[in-house]
Amino acid sequence: MLGLFGVLLLAGAGLLHHWHTNPPAFMQLTPATHPASTNAPPAQNATNALQDLLKQKTSAPLQQEIASKLLSFSTGVAVLAGVIGAAGLIMGVLSLRLAGAERGKAWTGMMLSLVSILAWGLAGWNVVLNIRIKQKAIAQIGDEFANYTNIINNALNMADDLLPGVRAGQDTVIFENEWRGKLAPDLHVQPVNSPGDVLLSEQREIRPVLIAVLNTQSGLCRPLIDALNEIHRDIPSSDLLILVVSHRENPAALTAAVEAQGIRFLTGKAVNPLPPYKDALSPTVFAIDHEGVIRKALVGNDAAKTDDLRRIARNLRDAARR
After folding, report:
1. Strands 198-199 and 209-213, bridge-based pairing
2. pLDDT tens digits for 312-321?
3. Are 174 and 165 within 8 A, CB to CB?
4. Which of 6, 78, 140, 243 could form a disulfide with 123 if both were Cys (CB 3.0 to 4.6 A apart)?
5. Closest alpha carbon to 237 in 321, 318, 317, 322
6. What are residue 294's phi and psi, to 5 degrees?
């Protein structure tokens, strides 16, 4: 009886194992349908599209969770079947040693028990499959996080392009009132277009610095990049260091932008930037003299005015020569 019971449990474990890839109808989630264009108002169409997107993003993880639960249940049943099979095998061996035992039934029970013990192999395979499901879920979380990060970056880029006026004038006055005439905090930059790191503090008593916080993919920052390229051609780096920092772009994107836009000045990522660089909106320019003092701060459209930037750069150079 133990052997027969173990075989039945093995069959149940096998059925649960099969359901983890081919679940019955009552365990399947309704797939998300592609939104069809309707004559409904735009707001309703947007709501329908959002609902479909939520279904697509949640149905796969839920189906994976169902598969994981089925495998876990199958593992438990298989382990129990193996234990019962082992017990049946022991009982069968002991029965054969008894006088007058029904050997035919004993041998049949032992064979069924041996089959039941095979359930332990199924249990081990279920554990492996469950681990793979968890690994796949973790990988999907990483992919989704990357997708959401791209969405956020695109939204911030749109904000850079749509709100240039807000980031000029008043913000320039605020930055200048707070930082003009103060010693510039140190800044550690890792350029993507030059070997070795750059420390702002190491430039004191050597040369002035123009620091620009920008996003190379933003349309508002393109005129500033062109203006900085022009200044870099007119004033050698020995007389004025131009240092560009991008907070949101990764090094690979910066490297591609440097090549595509012909950027010659140092461009890279800041390491643990302090205020005012950390809080600077894109684009913002800080003019720092050869003594390390902030002399000017320009934000938004103010930062992209070529004539003003050229005048500021020349004043920094001339002051350092005196």
Report:
1. unpaired
2. 999 999 999 8
3. no
4. 78
5. 317
6. -75, 120
**18 Cβ contact partners less than 8 Å away, ≥ 6 residues apart:** none
Percent of the chain at pLDDT exceeding 70: 62
Burial class of 62 by CB neighbour count within 10 A (0 to 12, 13 to 18, 19+): exposed
**Which residues 6+ apart lie within 8 Å of 274 measured at CB?**
185, 186, 187
DSSP letter assigned to residue 183: B
- For residue 282, the 8-state DSSP code is S
Give the residue from 272, 279, 269, 221 showing the smallest Cα distance to 247: 269
Q: Contact at 8 Å (CB) between 116 and 10?
A: yes
* Residue 167, pLDDT score: 46
Query: What pLDDT digit, counting tens, does each position of 66-113 carry?
Result: 777 777 877 877 777 667 767 776 776 667 666 555 666 666 666 766
Quick one: which H or E segment has residue 210?
strand 209-213
**Confidence check: pLDDT of 152 > 70:** no
Please classify residue 25 by burial: count the beta carbons closer than 10 Å to its beta carbon, then call 0-12 exposed, 13-18 middle and 19+ buried. exposed
Domain ranges of the chain: 2-162, 170-321
Percent of the chain topping pLDDT 90: 32
Q: Identify the CATH number of the domain defined by range 170-321.
A: 3.40.30.10
In the sheet with 241-245, reading across from the earlier edge strand, the strands are 198-199, 188-191, 266-270, 241-245, 209-213, 284-288, 294-299
